[in-house]
Amino acid sequence: MKALINQPDQVVTEALQGMAMAYPNLIRLHENPQYVLRADAPKTGKVALVSGGGSGHEPMHAGFVGRGMLDAACPGAIFTSPTPDQIQEASTAVHGGQGILHIVKNYTGDVLNFQMAAELLQNDGIEVHSVVIDDDVAVKDSLYTAGRRGVGATVLAEKICGAAAEAGANLNAITALCTSINDSARSMGLALSPCTNPETGQASFTLGENEIEYGIGIHGEPGRQRIPWQPADTLTEKLMLPIIEDLPFKKGDEVLLFVNGLGATPLLELNIVYRAAARLASQHGLKVSRRLVGAYMTSLDMAGVSITLLRLDESMRSYWDAPVCTPALRWGC
Amino acid sequence: MGYAVVTLMQWITCAEEQFQSHLAELNALDAAIGDGDHGSNLARGFAKIREKLQANPPETPASLFKLVGMTLISTVGGASGPLYGSFFLEAGKIAGEQRELDDATLARCLQAGLTGIQRLGKAEAGDKTMIDALEPAIHALTNKAEMGVAAQKAREGRDATIPLIARKGRASYLGERAIGHADPGATSASLLLDCLASACLA
Known about the structure:
The structure holds 2 protein chains of 2 kinds.
Chain A: H1 11-22, E1 27-30, E2 35-38, E3 48-55, E4 72-78, H2 84-94, E5 100-105, H3 108-123, E6 128-133, H4 153-166, H5 171-183, E7 185-191, E8 196-197, E9 202-203, E10 211-214, E11 225-228, H6 232-246, E12 254-261, H7 267-283, E13 287-294, E14 304-311, H8 314-321, E15 324-325, E16 330-331
Parallel strand pairs in A: 3-4, 3-5, 5-6, 12-13
Antiparallel strand pairs in A: 1-2, 2-4, 7-10, 7-14, 8-9, 10-11, 12-14, 15-16
Chain B: E1 3-4, H1 5-21, H2 23-33, H3 38-55, H4 61-75, H5 80-95, E2 100-101, H6 103-121, H7 131-142, H8 147-160, H9 184-201
Antiparallel strand pairs in B: 1-2
Helix pairs in contact in B: 1-3, 1-9, 2-3, 3-4, 4-5, 5-6, 6-7, 7-8, 7-9, 8-9
């Protein structure tokens, strides 16, 4: 494969070093173990928010470290969760004496490693709460699966809870807010192409010229079904309807509409999808009051899109509007 | 027979060689129903173990198991890091201070390891996971079977995952599309049992 890399096993480290060099005012990189923390960490008297997961989803999570969002992010190897000692050290480094919230995407590896880290931190006398995000309607939530995957709602939860922590909310309140965001958000995605892991050089799957993987995960795991290509408006509808029906979102609901690129899809196309999604939302009587369009939770070089709807209440809306100063999400600073 | 730390280190060395030589195969199995890095992750973990063993050779089976478990947890990541890590950590707790394990104690160590994996991962036989290879093998050892027989049970358990739908981990998202592929975790577990057998027979 052709890629802008040096050594395959140094991809994650070199990318993190580059990001730290590009945003010295916002973040710092700690190596061995690897984590990114906000430049002014630890913030005494504030609940610390820590997230993490496999790399390959940039800018998530390290790009969301900074004032008004995460205190630390723990990047694992490509598509591989971080390790308990790494999460423990990152959490300890940013602990401001008011406890820690771990925001964890629902993948078996992430859940297990964060669980072990939380046990280690609790042994050290640090209070840790965890919220597992599972908003992907493409997966059936049953006893017979690992449950729904955590996708786009993670970005929204990190932003909104980060603002609440900055405003001085306590750990219980932020945990409740995070749970409520997860309960009020639904997502679904599709891929036009597989992704290629730069550590192995292997494509995650093969797709025909005219095929689309519908209900895609963010690790290049195959989706729910393969369907032929259709115009953007039709594909958008195929994502929006299961999302709306699942919560269900009801007429009159105020929502945040998040159209997320999976890595290789240009903003040009994301805007076409946003146009269709916003029209559909309004046809269903939803009031879109906040929006986000761009590549925030990617799957390496995968072409495709995911859509997330979050039903907003007043506190979520005001925390969404609050200042955020991170490499990837910035307003009001 | 007795299992001194030298024998058990041969087990771990063999595992490193096997995971390295089956790296592409394990990645390919994982790519079919997961994300394609199971071989790379295990190879990374066991390479680190080799470094640590060379720097500080452990004196007892318990300290060997602890070193292996801690290293897997801190270097492998994913689900397999904590799961295999717990396997060795729990096995180490049973080994105590003994310098040599007898058959029955080794079987109890492995059984404790299996219980540790199940406590963490909550998988049962038939979920298409490493349990499908480990459980029949360790069950056989508990019933005083020979190592070669246990390794054979693990291989059969691995093969028996081929027609299954996965109910744990990333493969569970696939539903019926997981049918027809051996589980990568059951495959690595089977390699681990093969190595235990070859170390003990050596």
